[in-house]
Write a structure and sequence with these properties.
The chain contains 14 helices and 24 strands. With 480 residues, it is α+β, with helices and mostly antiparallel strands.
């Protein structure tokens, strides 16, 4: 039996059609590149359980088909970014009275390009042409990037229909923050919550009761000391659910575990929370609103340390500069990455339309000293809001040495990690670096270690008076 007997109008392999009898576990890239190539071109259909070239049906039993589909999904989730918007279905047929199944994967042209295949930490970009999948040319990559640069995940249409009774949690949240009022159906429609055909936008799906996808994953942790790498993890909790439940989960996690203190004043006593509740809530709302939902396999991280709270969200500032680290929260102009999600949160009265959430955080910390000032650090793949613990008298010690990760440095040395950690928070003189490493201030240290890190973009150097100072470029490393 052949595929054309099931669906008709089938041609042998062309730009939009490919078959595999089985997914090759030994050569994952061999078939994953076809999925990426279809998504980067004009889309296509990929059949599993059909013999290549002849279209003869090989098929699967029901159990085998489920296993093959799960394997397919797992490999796509792990190796393709952003994940193409695909529709997977089973086609059934009978052979000698036994039911068999073929897997059909419909891959539309990706709105966000290029779709990148990353295997063994090596990224590749493929394009489908003339019935074959090959590496994309430089010109094709540029064209893909230009066409998709303004696309936002949350406003794209999903394949789920709007059903009003599946949004009770959102309605309750809206009512809670709007003096008991109800959100109007007209308001949802005007925001683009669903389209004229009744299909939900991607962002709307994330507000749906019972949503259990990976797009909303959060991880909340408590560490016994000041860093992740060298301290005991007291608690680590993971959660995924609708966006409103995620916001509440993160908020409650911190409120239940943060410190409290009392200070004496002339006219009595004053209770102090480690983190002002308004600042905490604004930080969590900001992380949810500006998260990059195209990035699969990522999560918002809420980390409690002895001296601070860190709220990290996947994706750098949308169409903004890489700030590195800044205390000037009021001066940050962050454009919306997720128009629909932000519009919903604004309508729920938990986010300012004018983007003044950071101003409220600054206001809550206005009486704090220099060691208790909140700040933000931003890199290309994440941004982190740091709120100092107001009950920890010593504040955040800038001299702390973070645990970092970074790509291997060309012609690097065994000193690279220590140097980059030591210079992460403060610019250091060569003599300070040498003392920290326990070595002499030598030409080897200056040329082979420090200059090599400078030339490869890991360190920046500046001369102050006669001394040379070195500081780690935050966009080149990642703090664990």
């Amino acid at each position: 039996m052949y595929l054309e007997e099931l669906i008709g109008n089938v041609q042998l392999e062309n730009d939009k059609f490919e078959c595999k009898s089985r997914l090759n576990r030994e050569d994952v890239v061999g078939w994953l590149k076809s999925i990426a190539g279809f998504a980067n071109a004009l889309g296509g259909e990929f059949y599993i359980g059909v013999e290549d070239k002849t279209n003869k049906l090989i098929g699967f039993s029901r159990t085998e088909a489920d296993n093959e589909r799960n394997y397919f999904n797992n490999q796509v989730n792990e190796h393709l970014s952003p994940r193409p918007q695909m529709k997977i279905s089973f086609l059934s047929y009978e052979v000698k009275g036994n039911e068999r199944f073929v897997i059909r994967v419909n891959i539309p042209e990706s709105v966000v390009k290029p779709v990148i295949l990353k295997y063994k930490n090596i990224p590749s970009i493929f394009m489908r042409r003339d019935g074959f999948t090959n590496g994309a040319t430089y010109e094709e990559i540029i064209e893909m990037s230009v066409k998709s640069k303004n696309t936002q995940y949350d406003v794209l249409a999903s394949d789920e229909k709007y059903e009003a009774d599946k949004f009770h949690i959102l309605h309750e949240f809206y009512s809670e923050h709007n003096n008991g009022k109800e959100i109007a159906e007209k308001a949802l429609r005007s925001m683009g919550f669903y389209d004229e055909n009744g299909f939900l936008a991607n962002g709307a799906v994330l507000f749906q009761d019972g949503y259990d996808g990976r797009k909303t994953q959060v991880q909340c942790s408590v560490f016994s000391g000041f860093t992740k790498g060298s301290e005991r993890i007291v608690t680590i909790n993971r959660f995924q659910g609708d966006l409103i439940s995620s916001i509440k989960y993160m908020t409650e996690f911190v409120l239940q575990r943060m410190n409290h203190s009392v200070i004496k004043q002339k006219d009595g006593r004053k209770n102090i929370d480690a983190y002002p509740q308004r600042a905490l809530f604004e930080g969590i709302i900001n992380a949810v609103a500006h998260r990059d939902y195209f990035l699969d396999g990522t999560q918002i991280q809420v980390d409690l340390f002895r001296d601070r709270l860190e709220i990290s969200s996947p994706g750098g500032f949308y169409r903004g500069e890489k700030l590195g680290k800044t205390y000037d929260l009021s001066g940050i102009i962050s454009k919306r990455r997720n128009e629909l999600i932000c519009s919903v949160l604004v309508s729920c009265n938990v986010m300012e339309a004018a983007g003044t959430g950071f101003d409220k955080i600054v206001e809550d910390y206005k009486d704090a000293d220099e060691k208790h000032r909140p700040f933000i650090s931003s890199a290309s793949d994440h941004f982190t809001l740091v709120l100092p613990d107001l009950t920890y008298v010593d504040g955040i010690e800038e001299s702390a040495i973070p645990t970092i990760e970074f790509a291997p440095v060309p012609e690097g040395t065994d000193f690279d990690e220590k140097v980059l950690s030591f210079c992460y928070y403060r610019a250091r003189k060569v003599s300070e670096i040498a003392a920290y490493l326990g070595v002499r201030d030598s030409s080897y240290l200056r040329k082979k270690v420090l200059e090599n890190l400078v030339q490869n973009g890991y360190l920046e150097k500046n001369k102050v008076s006669r001394a040379m100072y070195y500081k780690t470029k935050h966009e080149s490393v990642y703090v664990r």
